[in-house]
Amino acid sequence: MGLTSARLRAFGAVAEEGSYSAAARRLRLSQPAVSKAVQELETAFGVTLFERRGRSMVPTDLALELGPVAAEMERVEAEALRILRRRAMADSGTLRIGLGNSMPGIALIGAFQRRMPKVHVQVEFGNSAAIIDAVLENRVDVGMLPNVPDDRRFLRKTCLVQKVVAVIPNGHRLAGAASVALAELASERLIFRTPGSSTQRVVDRAFRQAGLEVRPAMLLETRDGVCEAVANGLGIGFIWRYGTSRSDGFSRVPVAEINDNYEEVLFHRTDSENRLAALFVADARPTPAG
């Protein structure tokens, strides 16, 4: 082949360094090897890439046009090498993950462990405030939450877009409805999350904007607790639409006044050098909403 990565790499080094000897030192090759690679490239395409002036190699107009392409190829190769080395180094160790909801985080963890079976994963569950604090304080390496504040201290990756919905016990008159209004819910036994929950912040704002004052019948710490209480007929609660894979005992019903979509994001500290956290975030595939 006339064009090979080795020949283009040799050309790029000569173009940047200005001589065969300097290019050879940079590439850790012999000077004749670099000179030969450039000459083979010129011969293959019948072109002149450099003109010798004294001890320097001056690029022709064609070489000036080709130079940025060679530089970009070198950058891409370096990035590919970095990724491959990172993968090779990250075949073991412990990754600490903080989740606000079991899903889709558990699904992403499962996919990651199938690719990286030697990595030990520790999972911490908590509300939004607790998980953000855990990431900031390095108690977990990476967090996953909906509605994470746009903060320069975090690197973020969106994995899902979803809304808050009402969860209504099977057999309730509102179960299975196409949607429900907050005014209808205000007279029901409501189950709320404790302060610090991103779900509860959305629900509180919606009731406030609707001009409705409500007092919950129950206040629970976790989403799983809300699902369990609703499934046992103790009231109506609220969860992120894809916050759990559970579907027994209740139905998810959209709330007419809660229309905003929120991103579920993976995030870790901007200054983190944890290779497993970076690999987990980079490898995570957005989960389709459905």
Automatic annotation (TrEMBL):
It comes from the Bacteria. The keyword Transcription applies. Residues 3-60 form the HTH lysR-type domain. Keywords: DNA-binding, Transcription, Transcription regulation. InterPro entries: LysR_HTH_N, LysR_subst-bd, WH-like_DNA-bd_sf, WH_DNA-bd_sf. It holds the Pfam family LysR_substrate. The keyword DNA-binding applies. Belongs to the LysR transcriptional regulatory family. PANTHER family: LYSR SUBSTRATE-BINDING, TRANSCRIPTIONAL DUAL REGULATOR HCAR-RELATED. This is LysR substrate-binding domain-containing protein.
